[in-house]
UniProtKB/TrEMBL annotation, chain B:
It is found in: Nucleus. InterPro entries: Histone-fold, TFIID_TAF13. It comes from Phoxinus phoxinus. Keywords: Nucleus, Transcription, Transcription regulation. This is Transcription initiation factor TFIID subunit 13. CDD domains: HFD_TAF13 (cd07978).
């Protein structure tokens, strides 16, 4: 199966930027990460963007096509520059890690849910087969979900003056907090407003 | 008022698996124990996380996958889970949304790269 961590060296540079994509607060468009590699393949992405912007361009300007192309080129350049900056910063950061930090970072990047188990689980719920992309998406967001809980639990642990390893009480408090922020999906309890 | 009564009920469901007495979710064999341990270490926990915490997290992840699957089945094409449905459900959560877009884009690129590689081999 395609394990992103085992791609060839020339892909690794681009791949490093994905790690920062998972950090909190970075709201950059996902397409920005793949820009460096997508030189020849930029057409599909640009065509999609052009399709969305077409409506406003044609109603405002005599030469919408040219104006659109200039805008897209500027945006692409900006995204590439931001991308390269980010890759460089990540490289500088990772090169200054201690051994323990390197270990932890490696675990952070490499750990993943087994695709077979996720596929089995989803198929047992739907009763029909699911595509590979669904499994990829589901394992990805499950990992982000697990990360959110662990991070919240670590916050709780620190706030209560305890030390890691995390205990069940930290996990439960983290779940309670995330639930109040509606970050944990819950369709069992429907609060009926007017009855 | 109703919500306060609900919360302990939900929490009991979540953590009962670790107590020795089997609840519904505790009876199932542990699917992700090894991977979850590595993941918890990667996210900041100790190198050896407590087994009870790993169990709680596994139950939460399975519940999350179950909820997402049910929701995805109820929208778009009924009874099926498609990627577009998952992306739609995630749209409000910036982290998960960005992650899914990243993963799917990377997958496409890898597929193209593999295909180009195979064709190059085939040609020569």
């Amino acid at each position: 199966m395609a394990d992103p961590d085992r791609v060839k060296p020339e892909d690794r540079v681009e791949h490093k930027s994905l790690g920062s994509g998972s950090t909190p607060g970075s709201g950059e468009p996902a397409a920005g990460h793949s820009r460096p590699k997508e030189e020849g393949k930029a057409r599909p992405g640009d065509a999609a963007a052009a399709g969305e912007e077409d409506e406003e361009g044609s109603s405002l300007h005599p030469s919408p096509a040219k104006k659109l192309k200039l805008e897209q080129d500027k945006k692409k350049e900006k995204r590439q520059k931001v991308d390269e900056d980010e890759i460089q910063k990540m490289q500088v950061l990772v090169s200054s890690f201690s051994e323990e930090q390197l270990n932890r970072y490696e675990m952070y990047r490499r750990s993943a849910f087994p695709k077979a188990a996720i596929k089995r689980l989803v198929q047992s719920i739907t009763g029909s087969s699911v595509s590979q992309n669904v499994v990829i998406a589901m394992s990805g967001i499950s990992k982000v979900f697990a990360g959110e809980i662990v991070e919240e639990a670590l916050d709780v642990c620190e706030k209560w003056g305890d030390t890691p390893p995390l205990q069940p009480k930290h996990m439960r408090e983290a779940v309670r907090r995330l639930k109040s922020r509606e970050q944990i999906p819950n369709t069992k309890h429907k609060h009926i407003l007017f009855h | 008022m109703a919500e306060e009564e609900e919360d302990p009920g939900f929490d009991e469901d979540l953590d009962d698996g670790g107590n020795g007495v089997d609840s519904g979710q505790g009876k199932r064999k542990r699917l992700f124990s090894k991977e979850l341990r590595c993941m918890m270490y990667g996210f900041g926990d100790d190198q050896n996380p407590y087994t009870e915490s790993v169990d709680i997290l596994e139950d939460l992840v399975i519940e999350f996958v179950t909820e997402m699957t049910h929701k995805a089945m109820s929208i778009g094409r009924q009874g099926r889970v498609q990627v577009e449905d998952i992306v739609f459900l995630i749209r409000k959560d910036p982290r998960k949304f960005a992650r899914v877009k990243d993963l799917l884009t990377m997958n496409e690129e890898l597929k193209k790269a593999r295909k180009a590689f195979d064709e190059a081999n085939y040609g020569s």
